[in-house]
Amino acid sequence: MNVKKVDFIIVGQGLAGTLLAHFLKKEGCQTVIIDNGHRTCASKVAAGLINPVTGRRLVKSWMIDELLPFARQTYREIEQHLGIFCYHERPILRALFNHREENDWLARTAHPGYEAYLGEPENLERILRDTEPAFAYGELKQTGQVDLPLLLDSYAAHWQAQGKYLLQEVIYSDLVITPAGVTYAGFTAPQLVFCEGAGALQNPYFKNLPSGGAKGEVLIVHIPKIDWQQILKHRVFIAPLGDDLYWVGATYNWKYANDQPTAEGATYLQERLADILRVPYTLVGHRAGIRPTVKDRRPLIGIHPEIPALAIFNGLGTKGASLGPFWAYHFGQVLLQKGNLDPAVSIARAVTTSAEED
Ligand SMILES: Cc1cc2nc3c(=O)[nH]c(=O)nc-3n(C[C@H](O)[C@H](O)[C@H](O)COP(=O)(O)OP(=O)(O)OC[C@H]3O[C@@H](n4cnc5c(N)ncnc54)[C@H](O)[C@@H]3O)c2cc1C
Question: Which of 95, 131, 219, 342 has the fewest beta carbons under 10 Å from its own?
Fold first, then answer.
């Protein structure tokens, strides 16, 4: 068989693999991407929300001041490149449920460094009309929503048209690994990068990493004519998808039997919706995926310590849309020997540090 030489083989075309391939291509590299048809693809289930201030304590996400402008620029660049519109800047309206939450919000708005992200809610009329009112509301700014299915499908079609995309499962035992690189499915490259998301839990080459998985279920609902422009964070997130469709989610489970939607997940989300909405809706979809989580909530990136032909780009956890662009660029530079890997995201920390929390 004729073997074609490329610079990199990427396994997995979720957000991680897509962004890494994007940046490697910008550097002039030849890359082939292999994906199993998004069989276990968290990116296809996610809302793609970018939310700089999260949690009950309203804390800025790690490195968000750097990540956010980089993410925005990257998604705009991809839009231009592919001729699509996948990055939507939309405020998140956060429901506050009592005096304490409102006070915490107000206190946080006075904190240095938060003024760019927290503000007074605007254009509340439609959401107040269509939902049970909360105690108060705050508005998260510089927030956005990446249409990840559109981004992934558009890039897949683009690469397929160029013969750089293979639709198949990568079988680990069939990889031919030599000191010169890796050969697989008619392609050979000095380096292969695994971007398998939670699929990496089965990867025999990177099995000692502190990776985990958190299953999430979501509903897609049709709510005619409400025309929300914001994303609502109430008991659950409700995010507009266009065409009167809304993403509702998500559940969060560390213990799960498989990656399939469950009756309990649907019931939980439908009960939350019943608490929130004053208008009727129709259920049109119910999906599930596994978030590739890491104990210390940092990406897991690096080159295999004993097999330098193998590398991994993973651990985007619950925040792939904001973390992905910056770290894909960073790792691209490392792979091309134009920069050093930041120890905060290096797989080397897995054996040297204990878990720390955000
Ligand atoms: C319910 C839910 C809601 C979420 N909401 C948000 C959100 O609002 N904002 C946000 O930033 N993040 C969100 N996330 C997290 C986000 O989805 C992840 O951070 C991100 O998508 C991970 O991307 P990935 O490319 O690493 O993994 P994935 O998207 O899982 O992609 C991995 C790909 O590799 C393929 N693959 C795996 N193994 C193989 C193999 N052996 N051979 C071939 N192909 C293989 C898989 O099929 C898949 O296509 C959410 C996740 C879930 C589940």
Answer: 342
